[in-house]
Model the fold of this input.
Amino acid sequence: MRDGVVVDMGGSGTRIGAVVDGHVVRVHSAHVATAEDLAAAVLAVDPVPAGVGVSLSGSVDADRGRVLASRAAAWAEGDLRAELVSRIEAPVSVIGDGDAHALAMTRLPKVRYGGIAISLGAALAFGALNSHGALIHPCGVTGWDMGHWRIVDDHTNTEAWWALGGHGLYDLEREHGDGAAELYAYRLASFLVDTVQMFRPQTVLLTGGIVVGLGEALHGPVAEQLNTLPISVPTPRVVYSPSRDTALFGAAVAAGLALPEMR
Done:
């Protein structure tokens, strides 16, 4: 395996780590505000990386390494891959964070394809794998943007990126205190019922800071609502990631720095 560096840029900041023998190690936070900053942070981890994988929250054309739009890193919009290659002199992969979380499923043992991955943090990211473990994309050049899916329940009527992101959880905590976790869990479960009926996955990966923070408070409501699926829709296995750095594992796969687990 080639060794290299992986980066995840999201709403809560930038995380960076080395990839050694296919494993992501030495993960830490980094402050970056320009392509030059990012290249310097990469080279500080490995002065001569064999490859670099970048996961970024936003609308990304992975085939061309272009960032079309990003709330988390507006400075990265444009030809980010070309900018980094010119400074690092190594192959660079740039993908959306939804795709990165989906590819992270390929690193998990005993996970059945196809699958969907949903990351819940400052906002919402979504990715999907087909029955062979390859990414599924919509008809355009970018990955899925499920953030505009409207969530309607007793406590909200707004888009999923807000309702299921950190803003929506904060609103629930402010209004309902200790009851916020359960209300959020049922909100998430309702979204899952809809997406499972659309994609028919065998596995659902839930990841991100909110999943780590709420932990087992999500499990009961999610299982309860998935049991309401129509009889024609198989109930998927739900995997809860214990890591806030799941996207880094997918970025490593996209960059050819890590191989999927054997099935």
Notes: The mean pLDDT is 93. The longest strand covers residues 13-20. The radius of gyration is 18 Å. Residues 102 and 185 are 21 Å apart (CA to CA).
